[in-house]
Queue: 2 jobs
Job 1
Amino acid sequence: MNDGGLPGVPSEERIVLHVDMDCFYASCERRRDPSLRHEPVVVGMGYEAGEAHGAVATASYEAREHGVESAQAISQALNHLPRAVDADDPDGAVGHYRPVDMAYYESVSEEVKTVLHEVADTVREVSIDEAYVDVSDRLGWDGAPVFARNLKARIHEEVGVPASIGVAPNMSTAKIASDHDKPDGLVVVTPDEIRPFLAPLDVKRLHGVGPVTARELRSMGIETAGALAQTDRHRLVDRFGARGGDIHDYARGHDDREVEPVGEPKSLSNESAFTEPTENPDRIRDRLLTLIKQVTTRTTQHNVLYKTIGIKVVTPPFDVHTRSHSLSGPVDDPALVERIVLDLIEEFEERPVRKLGVRVSNLSFVDADQASLDDWEQSPTESNDTDGTPVQPDGGTATENERSRQTSVFKFV
Ligand code: DCP
Ligand code: MG
């Protein structure tokens, strides 16, 4: 990248969201055990009976106030926390430990990502609790704060875990913004605000500046992003090579990396939650018909065929059930989706339902070029389909509905 204008879309015209879940594993534990809310919670490994060594994966913000940090030794971390027996004060906090349960956190992560894919077409998932979303095609800066606020609320209501969101004209600033007011943060940095927003920040907050680079920059007398932005670019390139130019750009609020979605979606789905759990068959049916309409409108728009049709039913508190049915060949047939979905839901008659989802998977992309279609058909990920649905290797008719209690359904490659 040169010092002057930027290639491609000027970054000032883009609106990028960075979504990062708050104390993610601990929030997942709270979702399934609400008694942990507002309590210091440490999630880690290696504290099970007989084990003395282990590390903290994450801690709730209440636990962080006691000095607990990620990657700390578990025994040290738990020593920071008040124990039930130590708590003289009946209102005093008591520390809680939960062992890491990756399968569960991945299933929650999939639910969050499903919401993201519903609100935007350009989503890049970067880790279990983090994604970039480019909404430049659908919003102006006027609408960005409301969009981000609604997205946060939706994740909270539909998935039951808190997120922080940063909005900025590029990826690196959006990431800093999501971290700026955690937890439950929402920070919007408009193109006009980008330089003043970055200027006072410690250089270590910038993308591409790790602890070693930060130390070197400090030794050069450069402590803040503002100081870095004003440093002669050649000095940085001499010292750090091409990366010196990149961090100079980031410090000046320039970053023209595109939010590139990773791979084709493995499934298309829509979900919807009820305000209160309901057993009313008409409400459940109506909601399913709406979801079917949404999903099949998307498949038709994008020329997508599917072989597997499924539902997701969440019963209180957050028990996730998935059911699916596979066809002998790919179709795009809304009437058939309706018949299968209404058949699958019968099993849940008279049970309270908190949330519903409709999904089609085993997709083929009619318009996709041959290369990506080949990739798709050879994809070994089909056998990992996380609802446990066996893929029909010979394309033969599945005569039974596959049943599974696993929770993670919406996978993207
Ligand atoms: N994680 C881990 N070990 C680490 C860091 C993180 O196992 N050293 C896991 C646990 C976290 C999850 O990854 O919950 C996401 O990492 P984040 O860095 O986003 O941390 P949190 O989401 O826990 O906290 P924050 O609110 O700061 O984002
Ligand atoms: Mg996080």
Note: The pocket of magnesium ion (ligand 2) is lined by residues 20-21, 24, 129 (CB under 6 Å).
Job 2
Amino acid sequence: MSNVKSLIRVLNGETITPPPCWLMRQAGRYLPEYREIRSTTENFLDFCFTPELAAEATRQPLRRFDFDAAIMFSDILVIPHGLGQKVTFKQGEGPILDALETSQDIAKLDLSLVRIRLAPVMQTVREIVAGLDNSTTLIGFAGSPFTVALYMIEGRGGTEGTKTRHWAAERPDEFMALMNVLCMATSTYLIEQVNCGAEVLQLFDSWAGLLPESQFRKWIIEPNRRIVESVHAVHPNVPIIGFPRNAGVLYRDFVEGTGVQGISIDSTVPLRWAAKELQPLCTVQGNLDNHLLCSGGITMEEEVRAILTVLGSGPFIFNLGHGVLPLTPVENIARVIEIVRGTA
Ligand code: CP3
């Protein structure tokens, strides 16, 4: 047995059977014990910035399930907060930001605040690391610039990113200024997470699939590439997983263009295409549909087996195509893990 953790081994190109497994949003509202500790704090960001609570939320799913990784409990919207933008989360409403409207609003963002404002997240990372066993990998993360910019400009979730897409197309120099600030803040933040003990990083570009090819190259591939380069300049061996959700055939260009070690694919990506086009380039992570996980039953089980059959013969991490939904029955997750581990 190698003493290198399984998640790191697959991200270095090894094939492991059964594959390592964790789930996006493995911590969160589907767990009663999460809802319990979450109810102690009204504003979600305050919860994220309380290291004892965030570390506990990180550990909760690991007590129930045999996951190979812990993902630091935080949110992608801590970066706008770190830059001085007003960000609140009201219970059940999702994020509300003081939306950026002009180039002056972009100019007001303050990179010098990031380190101090996000210091509690670093304390969370240290606390998690202190209690981690020697087979579980700690994943740090951040949102990618376009996805974070979208929330900063729209001011809330549940949009199609209309204002953001128009700003990027009509005033690209201003939009580039925002992307530059986000690239710098995000790189600093991720480097700091690794300094504090994160072993793998994931970049969430949840809204990448909104963009046509030319814009995808400019606002998705290029900023993610710059962040990978900046992080690797300081920490050359830390594996980075990219997640340009809904990128379709552009997943391949994303992998080639950014230099990531892993690619997290959404549930619409055909398995055979991913095995043929992506797996020769890097480790593939995914891609059980989160709604199938929520429904459970034979349809879910067959899908899990199909994913293992097609992607399990190369470097692979079992995961979802997007985060665990709040209504997901806990038993369905236990069942998926049994099948992945081959104990079912
Ligand atoms: O377990 C984990 O995966 C770690 C924690 C984590 C959260 N958010 C906790 C969270 C991670 C990795 C994220 C990433 C995130 N946050 C993304 C990228 C992934 C994706 O889902 O596309 C995005 C777009 C966000 C922004 C965000 N955070 C929104 C739009 C919302 C509201 C919608 C919702 O699901 O409630 C959040 C809130 C949020 N982030 C919750 C959790 C557990 C729920 C808030 C609560 O408990 O009150």
Note: Residues 7-341 form a domain with the TIM Barrel fold (CATH 3.20.20.210).
